[in-house]
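User: Structure please.
Assistant: Input sequence and predicted structure:
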Amino acid sequence: MKIAYLGSPVLPSRSAHSVHMMKMCSALSDIGHEVYLIGAMRGEENEDVWEYYGVKNSFDIIYVPKPYPNLPIVPEVYLKAGGNVVNSWRSVKEAAKIRPDMVYTRNETTAYLASLKGMPTIYESHVPVPFEQLGRCRNILFKRLLKSKQFLLLVVISESIKKYHEHRYNIDPDRILLARDAAEPLDPSISPMEFNNDIGLQVGYIGNLYEGRGKRIIKKMVESCDNANFHVVGGGDKDIEVWKRSIKKDNITFHGFVPPSEIDRYRSSFDVLLAPYQRELRVDGGQNTVRWMSPLKIFEYMATGNPMLASDLPAIREILVDGETALLCDPDEPDEWIDALNRLRDKELRDKIGGRAKKEFHERYTWNKRAEMIMDRANELKEGKG
């Protein structure tokens, strides 16, 4: 089947959206489809996009130019909205040229325009369509998409988002599919990192350093656990400087940004992994996504077979079971995290929890399994069997 995945992140970039998009295209190709990624914008010209993301060159990428240069006289919200429409329309026009059997996108404007062009469309939602500012226009387009004969399937990443859409938009249950995020199985041939500070547990946090990512938790753990070495992988230079000014101890190392293709060397090296999400977790656009999230980090951690400490939040409990596949801790209580880390000094417990998480990952949460589940449902609906 010929699939056009329409998305507009800059490639390559540090965004989780771009990682998700590249991994999904790779998985769709792996399970036998002819895949075209359309609408991405070029980043660094000298960067090999396949090497950067650690995926095979198994699908075509059709780039589009950036919609227009930033115009300072135009308010940013309108500039961004206008660019979204322009990019969506260009992507749909390019897709029409290859006559795909199906369009896949995470942008409701793109999905609606593709349906107008007569292309069967899958739309994946990670957060509800916003209502503030220009969100009302996006809601109108989304409602029209749901009424289109070309609308095949709404893919969501968490139970809370599924229930939200069912309640607010009265969607046919057969046309909404819960498919949590995923990760790649760990390559057994990779060489783990070697650290000089090899006394005590090696404890790692991997990801962005924005507000809501658990700085207060990590700071208290670093200050209270002298017999553990902490590692922070990721973040921009400014964020790292903010964290360094806050955490002034010798038992923490900031490794900076690491390309997606190299990150497994770090994940596999840590005795314990941290996912200290807070109750307020904001992304671009200002929405608090903690209720809806299905973090890539959780599945990437599960793939290593190393145990994790994660925040005890409803969205996390959809994935992990306390004491079975992780130790869950109150995001407002740093002492719980310290106690849990002390429990994981027991190697037998570490192996038990990490092993269970890895087993569940392989059974349910690889990119290929996710792609197969989505396409099986979409094909049933396209053939009128749903």
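The radius of gyration is 21 Å.
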